[in-house]
Write a structure and sequence with these properties.
Layout (H helix, E strand, L loop, with lengths): L11 H13 L4 H15 L15 H6 L1 H18 L15 E5 L16 E5 H7 L14
Antiparallel strand pairs: 1-2
Length: 145
């Protein structure tokens, strides 16, 4: 055959694409949509997924657990014994009704320390939300002087 090199054969993907384009050219739009949906459903199990998260319980499950609630109460009672009343270990206020038991080392990067009493401190909501997970400051030593 003139114009065609001997032994040159297109890859299967290009041949399938060419066949699909010839077929699609003659189909109505609703059928194209149906074909697209079917192809999407077939490709769904093959999608790429990101790396799995660290094996730790979800935040909701952790904060509802009996072990966390016990550690939280122990931290609150320890704070009450140290200061005589619940006191924020950062700003030393006791005039709030929103107390947070904060993880000094974040639970996301140090899951083994999540229930360790040495990793817990009592903060008011403003101090804890301002601190976030950016800082690992132990404020407990400030009020001891």
């Amino acid at each position: 055959m003139p114009g065609r090199r001997a032994g040159l054969r297109l890859p299967i993907e290009l041949r399938l694409l060419w066949w699909l384009l010839k077929l699609v050219w003659r189909l109505p739009v609703w059928l194209l949509t149906l074909v697209g949906v079917v192809l999407w459903l077939l490709a769904w199990p093959l999608r790429r997924r990101g790396a799995g998260a660290v094996d730790s319980p979800s935040a909701d499950a952790f904060y509802r657990s009996h072990r966390w609630r016990r550690a939280r109460i122990d931290a609150l009672e320890g704070n009450r014994e140290r200061y005589g009343a619940l006191t924020c270990e950062c700003c030393l206020t006791h005039a709030t009704d929103r107390w947070h038991v904060d993880h000094i080392r974040p639970r996301s990067s140090h899951p083994a320390l999540a229930l360790e009493p040495a990793n817990l401190q009592v903060l008011c909501a403003d101090c804890n939300l301002g601190k976030g997970v950016r800082y690992a400051t132990d404020w407990r030593c400030q009020g001891q002087s």
